[in-house]
Amino acid sequence: MQTVQHSEQTLKTALISKNPTLVSRYEQLDAGERRLLNKAFKPDNDLFGPITLHSESDWITSHPEPPQDFEQFFSDPSRKAPSPEKRSIYIQCIGSLGNTRIISEEYIKWLKGYCEAFFYGLTVKLLEPVPVSVTRCSFRINDNTQNLQIHAGHILRFLKRKKPRDAFCIVGITMIDLYPRDSWNFVFGQASLTDGVGIFSFARYGSDFCSSRYEGKVNKLQKVSSSDYSVFDNYYIPEVTSVLLLRSCKTLTHEIGHIFGLRHCQWLACLMQGSNHLEEADRRPLNLCPICLRKLRCAVGFNIRERYQALVKWIEDESADTPGVGTEHSREDNVNLPKPVEAFKEWKEWIIKCLAVVQK
């Protein structure tokens, strides 16, 4: 195992900058917020650890890219930020997220609530779920896994056409595996920063996706017509578990972070680290490092303490019973499934430690 180490001065510059204007902006932050963010370069820091590399296949090793400090983020001419007219994140579900309608509806509401806490201050809205056939995307059977896959680029085109006027971005989520082009095996997600659209799959986050027992496999000899979307009818969906929800929340917020202009983090252990495989994605924490947290705070304008409190509240709330959210038939059924947050327990304890620093 290898550790990515940076000097105290390097981390301090990456966070605060040497630009007098950005230094002044930093000094205007609340004292508690600065106290937490300064943990990035403090030797006694016990909240934000270094990045660890476990194999040559890890992202940083196999995808060399220049790091992005706060000044580079702030000065990026292509970066987009929410405006008073465009402060909504839209979520478009493609296919079902659960093996029953009720589970699917609850799952998407859990994700909505999480995004509202993570991107605190923005509105998150749900669009009516659509079947794969509505997107008119290409699809295939993966030669390695024998699972159905849909074309990520075609889904992005569909989302771009559907993007509402008040949307900062629109993101599609699905339990069907994705591929970006014929030569690629798969992709967890794909986004266009210019268009403010993204599509993310949670298919590979099921516990048995790569096992020979996976029930989503399609007969390799089966001929699949490019226009026959009935192959997606009753498509296999993994059981919703706490780990699946945690992995979904990670992917969704990581990829939306890219739409805000945050590049892959190479400073400290952080949600915005790249990941090449599920093992590496699981090592990636749910939280942003101080450098990426300052970037997102700059883009959205939230209060760090209030954001952390909202995340704790999301974990503690047993259901997704958010006022004004949901569909009529879910209310008629009067079903309120408990939110599986067991896997978030450790992170909740970490947030409470951060709140203690901010509120000191």
TrEMBL record:
Keywords: Hydrolase, Metal-binding, Metalloprotease, Protease, Zinc. The keyword Zinc applies. GO terms for biological process: proteolysis. Belongs to the peptidase M54 family. Probable zinc metalloprotease. PANTHER family: ARCHAEMETZINCIN-2, ARCHAEMETZINCIN-2-RELATED. This is Archaemetzincin-2. The gene is AMZ2.
